[in-house]
Amino acid sequence: MSEIDERSKELIKTRIISKLKEIKSFPQFVVETLRKLNDPTSSASDVAASLSRDEGLVLRTLKLANSAAYGMSRNISDISEAIALLGYKNISNIVLAATVYSVMDKGLSGYALDRGELWRHSLTAAYAARYIAQATRKVPPEEAYVGGLLHDIGKVVLNDYVRFGYGIIVKLVEEEHIPFTEAELKVLGFEHAMVGSLLVERWDLPEGYQYATLLHHKPNELAPEHAEFQPLVDVVSVANSMCLMLGVGLGADGLQNYLFPEPLERLGIRDYEALMSELVDFAGQAAQEMADMREL
Which residues contact 56 (CB under 8 A, 6 or more apart)? Predict the structure, then answer.
């Protein structure tokens, strides 16, 4: 196959939109739990009542709580107590990570990613984004964590179509020296960041995550009217690029990765090499968390 004709492109676009609709929204108990976590009037027991509908989340929460309480005279076995100890931000991250994990933990041959590699990259980017947010103080750290977690979610939807047009996409990248995402767009009419942003919108998550997902490869293209989201876009873009530079989740699309200088300048990062050395440890932390999740 040397090219994809316009009729095939339109058919692919129609199928991508249809597949987006097939991706399940968050389970009702997840939506309910997240709503309670964002409600300042809700108690730990309110959150616990909702969270308790998923045994895996309960076990993971208790494990983290006992790890955080290491050295205390007793183990924590009550989910409400665990929630109170960890705090709502941490519980929100646990719920989101477990939900997204179920979507991401698969092989994506279109992107040359074995099973677990997309999740490893996303989780490492989440840790990195949180660290960058803490260091620069431009974005709430837990918000940065979620942005990092979600940024590549569109690959799950687009994988089959990238595999179909892989030869043409790679040829465009090599011959025209363009980013993989730009080649995706030329060949398929969509690229994974666009699809991911649509999915985040479908999940009814905060608007900032839509832009962080949409523009993680193009951080300088945020429209002025959405400038409030620029720091989040920058943090996620830098975290993603640095993870790829470290070789974490380096699939087919990472070969033309570019670290833009403007996000570094806007965030006040003057020594990105020193930052890179700080981020190396997060790959190990992500690997451990993956192992923990697979045990549940």
Answer: 98, 296
Return the number of other C-beta atoms located less than 10 Å from residue 107's C-beta: 14
Helix segments in the chain, DSSP class H: 6-22, 28-37, 44-51, 55-68, 79-86, 88-104, 117-136, 141-150, 154-164, 166-176, 180-188, 192-202, 207-214, 230-245, 261-267, 272-295
Check residue 159 and give its pLDDT: 92
* DSSP structural state of residue 256: G
Backbone angles phi and psi of 108, in degrees to 5: -125, 90
> What span, in angstroms and rounded, lies between the C-alpha atoms of 229 and 40?
24
Mean pLDDT for the stretch of residues 253-275: 87
| pTM, entire model | 0.86
**How many CB atoms lie under 10 A from the CB of residue 250?**
17
Going by C-alpha positions, the residue among 198, 191, 204, 209 that lies closest to residue 145 is: 209
Homologous superfamily, domain 6-26+106-295:
Hypothetical protein af1432 (1.10.3210.10)
Q: DSSP assignment of 169-215, as one string? A: HHHHHHHH---HHHHHHHHHS--HHHHHHHHHHHTT--HHHHHHHHT
Q: What is the pLDDT of residues 209-240, one digit of tens each?
A: 999 999 999 999 999 999 999 999 999 999 99
CB atoms within 10 A of CB 4: 19
Q: How far is CA 231 from the centre of its chain?
A: 16
Parse the chain into domains and list their residue ranges: 6-26+106-295
- b/e for 75-87, b at 16 or more Cβ within 10 A? ebeebbbbbbbbe
d(CA 163, CA 115): 15
Rg, the chain, Cα only: 20
Tokens (6 digits) for 217:
């490869």
Confidence (pLDDT) at 1: 42
Contact 207, 248 (CB under 8 A): no
